[in-house]
Amino acid sequence: MTDLLASIHSPTELRALSRAELRRVADELRACVLENVSRTGGHLSSNLGTVELTIALHYVFDTPNDRIVWDVGHQTYPHKILTGRREAMPTLRQWQGLSGFPKRDESPYDTFGTAHSSTSISAALGMALASKVKGEKRHAIAVIGDGAMTAGEAFEALNNAGVYDDLPFLVVLNDNDMSISPPVGALNQYLTRLMSGQFYSAGKESVRNLLRNAPAPMRELAHKLEEHAKAIVSPTGTMFEEFGFNYLGPIDGHDLDALIPALENIKALKGPQFLHVVTRKGRGYKLAEADPVLYHGPGKFNPSEGIRPAAPGTVSAKTYTQVFGEWLCDAAAADPRVVGITPAMREGSGLVEFEKRFPERYYDVGIAEQHAVTFAGGLATEGLRPVVAIYSTFLQRGYDQLIHDVALQNLPVLFAIDRGGLVGADGATHAGAYDIAYLRCIPNMVVMAPADENECRQLLQTALGIDGPSAVRYPRGTGPGVKTEAGLSTLPVGRAQTRRQSAAPAGHRVAILAFGSMVALAEQVADEFDASVVNMRFVKPLDEATVLDMARTHDLVVTLEEGAVMGGAGTACIEALNAHGVLVPVLQLGLPDTYIDQGTPAQQLASVGLDAKGIAESIRRAMAERLGGKIEAV
Questions:
Q1: Closest to 575 (Cα-Cα) out of 400, 405, 437, 411
Q2: Strand order in the sheet with 414-418
Q3: For residue range 270-287, what is the model confidence (pLDDT) as tens digits?
Q4: Do the Cβ atoms of 19 and 64 come closer than 8 Å?
Q5: Distance between CA atoms of 176 and 285, rounded to whole angstroms?
Q6: What is the distance between the alpha carbons of residues 386 and 378, in angstroms, rounded to a whole number?
Q7: What pLDDT score was predicted for residue 204?
Q8: Which residues are annotated as catalytic?
Q9: Residue 236 confidence class, pLDDT cut points 50, 70, 90
Q10: For domain 499-627, is the CATH number 3.40.50.920?
Q11: For FRET with 209, which of 112, 172, 223, 624 sits at 20 to 30 Å CA-CA?
Q12: CA 598, 601, 603, 607 torsion: positive or negative?
């Protein structure tokens, strides 16, 4: 680490540097990002691609008085480093360390918490209008990627923002995948410089003033000539200008000599501005430039060697994501009605092989969860069997569609819900804490939680045969290591599995009703108490007969789930007991009414008492209270 970056503790020091020094800072920033991500894991490609853009924004704008909102937040490591958090970077995504995303209580420079896509324009617009209401002068800037621009919320915000023609508001489109039309020739570069200058802006306004009193046909002709000229120069520009924005670009997002003047000129303009910058993911690290997807979110690796493939003959435990991907291919081979849908999460959701084998039955709808759900409903009405592969935290974004467009019509859509429960280093923003609670209250919905890999495969196949909406939620990572079968067997709907029966004496009998990933932990804890263990499998329909039997033959019922306690699976068990007038002490264990920050999954579970030690302590306390004895020390 050279002294130049080490001397920057805030953007104030950055603004004192020359252009040549800023270029040195860019090189040092890339080295700093690469060094730290290789040691902690995290998002790499996107951060290497936004180094110059981050420098330019903090150099030109008076942050944090001027507000920058970073969409998704994958690209904010350079921002964190330049805003006083360089020395804390070794704690990135670690327990009680730096978040991998913008976080308001971490720094005043993190003006809005992000992690889910396409929220930045809405948030920045709210900030801009709040400043206007309060009579405060500041700019609001939203930085959004070309992928995030595909989501409906981004266009809803553009539509809203374009009517405020005096608002100091800027949207920066970070186009890092060339998914939006490329620029056309040197004329475009010249007009970009001209259009971003105060002279052009003033001249354009003067012409409009002169034409204001001109005959209508002349005004219309002038308007059409302007629009046609812009369309020839950059077909993309006119789309954003139709929303009421002044479009500028595309410009090279790695050229500080282009970025800084453009931003300085924009800063002096009135009204909503739209700056289109073109960047390259992985910039400056050849391995990431060559394969930005592989280096999107790597674990720890040696930068000089890169991410190494597993040694020949290495057998790794299957992840639940892999189990799902294999099942989907097998199910599609057996049933031509099966189609797969993902909202821009092909790799993360395990659909790579499915796309290769069944390209005509694979649909990546982009970052558009609402559309994905209703689209699946439409497919289902025509006799297909759509499978929506989606993270738990992202299914929240399509909740109204889930109810109105799928469940209300009782359509056979299968939701394969990945990342159910805590997810580790991505923290609270990506935790699948709420799916059990928000799914089980929906009429017609069947909700399943497998205890192991083979059961996951069986429940997915079970769900495929249900003539209505269903959901199978499974955790991130690997399971207990149960081998998956080759066939496509199913399990009885609404039936639990008793894995262990207590032989404890009367007054000391404990029954643990465990859901999904918690079954293995329940079996670990059971020995101490000679407890019965039930693998519940189904949250809805709940196996009420088993719940009632356990309640009538045991002295304490423990419900155990890796999901929100409020409204969760444990609540479903209590509702069943109340409905049948069965009174028994019930201990509900699950995720508490709080957000759980990043760390390893083990650290996260331990922090809320959902590791084996914490579960055992809770049961001891509950039994001691029931028996009137003192609480034993752990």
A1: 437
A2: 362-364, 338-342, 385-391, 414-418, 470-473, 446-448, 538-540
A3: 999 999 999 999 999 999
A4: no
A5: 15
A6: 9
A7: 54
A8: 281, 369, 397
A9: low
A10: yes
A11: 172
A12: positive
For residue 530, give Cα distances in angstroms to 46, 520, 533: 51, 15, 9
**Range in 95-104, 178-187, 415-424 with the lowest mean pLDDT:** 178-187
Q: Which pair of structure tokens corresponds to residue 76?
A: 């904010």
Q: What is the mean pLDDT of the chain?
A: 91
Average pLDDT of the residues in 351-356: 97
Write down the residue that tokens 């104030």 correspond to: 12
Confidence of residue 417 (pLDDT cuts 50, 70, 90): very high
pLDDT of 229 > 60? The answer is no
* Domains of the chain, residue spans: 3-287, 320-473, 499-627
Give the dihedral sign, CA 258/261/265/268: positive
Superfamily name with CATH number, domain 3-287: Thiamin diphosphate (ThDP)-binding fold, Pyr/PP domains (3.40.50.970)
Identify the CATH number of the domain defined by range 320-473.
3.40.50.970
∠ Cα 233 239 242 (to 5°): 115
State how far the Cα of 361 lies from the Cα of 196, in Å rounded to an integer: 45
Cα–Cα distance list, 215 to 99, 210, 218, 224, 599 (Å): 59, 11, 6, 15, 67
pLDDT > 90: what percent of the chain?
A: 84
How far from 161 is each of 66, 129, 145, 359, CA to CA, in Å?
A: 17, 10, 18, 38
**pLDDT for 568-591, tens place per residue?**
999 999 999 999 999 999 999 999
Residue 413 is classified by DSSP as: -
Q: Which two tokens stand for residue 390?
A: 């989606």
Please say if the pLDDT value at position 563 is more than 60: yes
State how far the Cα of 73 lies from the Cα of 84, in Å rounded to an integer.
17
User: Which DSSP state fits 397?
Assistant: G
